[in-house]
Amino acid sequence: MSTNDEIVEKLQTIVEQIKPDADIDIEQLRQIASDLENIRSQLQFERTDARKNHKWREADKLKDAEQECTQALDSVTSAILRPILIGKNQDNLQEMRKILGEVKTAAKTQERIDFIIKSLSFLRRILT
């Protein structure tokens, strides 16, 4: 699926922008929000297509990805509304590095939809 590949590439770009020890400014967050809105639209299209083709398992996974995307987008929106940057305390840094490692592992070992879900979960968790 070329759309799935596009989603994965966009998410990899977003995840690579977020460095555990770097601040994220408001403009970056706005761009991430815009990208997530586009990704959510693509996921909705993919899910509709899967349902039309009676690929129920794929449709269920895409629904999970779509929900995760919505939650990640909500977290980004919340971060934009807070006039502060994401904190850099050591606990947050260690947790972010661990999650980022999991996301990178998922990119290599799991299905694309699982990677999408893990990436969106990563974004939601660090921006909350």
Short summary:
This protein has 128 residues and is mostly helical.
Topology as a string of helices (H) and strands (E): HHHHH
C-alpha-based Rg, rounded? 15 Å
Strand content: under 5%
Coarse morphology: globular
- Unreliable segments (pLDDT under 50, ≥5 consecutive)? none
Task: Give the overall pLDDT as a whole number.
Answer: 76
Q: Could you give a short account of the major beta sheet?
A: none
Ends distance: 31 Å
Tally of contiguous helical segments? 5
- The count of DSSP E runs of length 2 or more, i.e. the number of strands, is 0
Oligomeric state of the chains present here: single chain
How much helical structure, as a percent, in the residues? over 70%
Structural class: mainly alpha
Describe this protein's structure:
The chain has 128 residues and is mainly alpha-helical. 81% of the residues lie in helices and 0% in strands. Helix 1 (2-17) runs parallel beside helix 5 (112-126). The longest helix has 27 residues, at 26-52. The radius of gyration is 15 Å and the shape is globular. The chain starts with a helix and ends with a helix.
